[in-house]
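2024-03-11 09:14:02 DEBUG pipeline.ingest accepted 1 chain
2024-03-11 09:14:02 DEBUG pipeline.ingest length=417
2024-03-11 09:14:03 DEBUG pipeline.predict start
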Amino acid sequence: MTFTQKFIQSAIIIAFAIVLGFFIWKWESITWENHYFSWSWDVFQSDKIEEAKKMIVEKYYHFSEKKKEEIEDGMVSAMVRSLGDKHSDYFPPKEAKDFDEVLRWDFEGIGAVIDATSRGIALRKVFPSSPAEKAWLVHGDILTHVGEISMIWLSTEEAVKKIRWPKWSKVTLTYLHGEKYESKKTDVIRDTIIIPSTYEKILTGGTIGYMEVAFFGEHTEREFATSLKNLTNSWAKAIILDFRNNGGGYLESAVGILSFLLDPGSTAVITRENDPTKTEKYTTTEVTWWERKIPIVMMINNLSASATEIVAWALQDYDRAVIIGEKSYGKWSVQTPFILSDGSMLKITIGRWYTPKDRSIDKSAITPDVFVPLTEKDIFGWYDRQLEWAKQVIERLTKWEAVEMIKKDTKELLTTP
């Protein structure tokens, strides 16, 4: 076969592959569109639903007494529940407003992060200058009563509804304090709580910085940058990032934080939706004033979720930090809120995210490089075992030991604090 013949044959093969690829792509797009529209039409316009609706309208004894909004809220809520996805939800107008306040971390209450336990509602964090702090409540205290209402066996969500109330309202809190669970009472006057997403300090010794990132809000990237500047201006040579109890927030804020920790142009996270054309790769941007090579340890626990997991998994994929603590929550999906015409809101899962190395976590949790379980002494605020381990690891990192090496032999070289 001559060179010309080989050239023509290769050109034909390449052209055929291009045409075939185009038709495959087109077929997948058509198939996806047909599947989506036919599926949605069949479900929401089915004979069964029409039959049930007709039966309820005609036969339910008190139907004429029902308000239109009440029926609508119930139907939409039922549709969302039928998805079987605990991260998708429906909020009527009033609850949608409350949810928006939570996203902004601007609400009225006592100013504490809480968690349900068998003894009552534990305070996991008390914010500086909050009504809770002014009433001398501290991390580890356990609320047993809010006014006359018992907090025992309530879920965290139920407790929030009992504790949160308009500003200037007064409430008497009964709580257990200290290792002996001494019962105490205090009066708290609720106020507007505006919470910064980051808090930083220099640890004892003067060269190790500590930063807590409480959530991922609209201003978290800017506040993270300010905290980094404060730490570096205080001559911190390494930083412990505390993402424990951080349930996440805006994905863009997670990418913004990773821009300070990874090289510019690094893949931070990949998201995929039903429509294959909407796959998106988020990459880090250039931050000229910040030294990215500073040693980092990141702390997580089983309440670390969503955007926190995006940051942790990216740092693991790039061997950029040592992750310490407990397994994360395991939230792999991406939600978007959609405001409806009456002010109500649908928060539904629109896709899932993948790590920079394109790994699907598929509902699994992040396993820390150094697993440090907590005892009751740690949980109720009398000691912080995970932070003590983090200090030991960061000391090794400041000696420019490789992250990969520390991950391999930390368990052998660290002693229990």
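2024-03-11 09:14:41 DEBUG pipeline.report Residues 3-8, 10-38, 412-417 have pLDDT under 50 and may be disordered.
2024-03-11 09:14:41 DEBUG pipeline.predict end
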